[in-house]
Design brief:
Shape of chain B: globular
Strand content of chain A: over 45%
Number of strands of chain B: 11
Largest sheet of chain A: 6 strands, mixed
Distance between the termini of chain A: 41 Å
Structural class of chain B: mainly beta
Oligomer: heterodimer
Chain lengths: ~110, ~120
């Protein structure tokens, strides 16, 4: 089945810093989503991005489907950005999830 | 409703007891998903509903797990004869269901935290 790998597994940054999170996947996909899980466990969909680039405020994402990777950019980090960032790709009826990148933003 | 809701928020049970978890999807969403998340791990797919039918039950870990959906809305996940390894957060999500479900944005509920003693 499809394998999804995320890096780095952990990231600690100072408030105001920029970061890039990476998601590699092992096969072609027609759906890739980025999620943020806050420290209280709530999962929020950030981007539905099977290809191309999207931006939403301080966050943007780029998926290069032909090279089987996606990047999530966070600019001017805030403490509220802390949590775990997951990417998930579709296979049949399932979303296959990466293990996540745990991001801690220090004030 | 405004978002996906799940109940109970927390459930503590004894090994061997049955538990029932409930999910209310966003009104109008025909696709509904159940996932399980163990501590510090990613999400594990359990089952997907399109309307009241479940095209994909492949993620259910054993025959102790079952799920149903009635009226194309509320879904219940039942775990019989719970085991300690069933302890996890059980998350429900819904989507419009227009594009094969999995190709759409999924909206998640807050989860039910299950602890089996």
């Amino acid at each position: 089945g499809i394998q999804v790998e995320q890096s780095p597994p952990d990231l600690i940054l100072q408030e105001g810093a920029n970061s890039t999170l990476r998601c590699n996947f092992s096969d072609s996909v027609n759906n890739l989503q980025w999620f943020h899980q806050n420290p209280w466990g709530q999962l929020i969909n950030l981007f539905y991005i099977p290809s191309g680039t999207k931006q939403n405020g301080r966050l943007s994402a780029t998926t290069v489907a032909t090279e089987r990777y996606s990047l999530l950019y966070i600019s001017s980090s805030q403490t509220t950005d802390s949590g775990v960032y997951f990417c998930a790709v579709a296979s049949n009826y399932q979303l296959i999830w990466g293990a996540g990148t745990k991001l801690i933003i220090k004030p | 409703g405004a978002g996906v809701s799940q109940s109970p928020s927390n459930k503590v049970t004894e090994k061997g007891k049955d538990v029932e978890l409930r999910c209310d999807p966003i009104s109008g969403h025909t696709a509904l998903y159940w996932y399980r998340q163990s501590l510090g791990q990613g999400l594990e797919f359990l089952i997907y509903f399109q309307g009241n039918s479940a095209p994909d039950k492949s993620g259910l870990p054993s025959d102790r797990f079952s799920a149903e959906r009635t009226g194309g809305s509320v879904s219940t996940l039942t775990i019989q004869r719970t085991q300690q390894e069933d302890s996890a957060v059980y998350l429900c999500a819904s989507s419009l269901g227009l594009a094969g479900g999995y190709q759409e944005t999924q909206y998640f509920g807050p989860g039910t935290r299950l602890l089996v003693l």
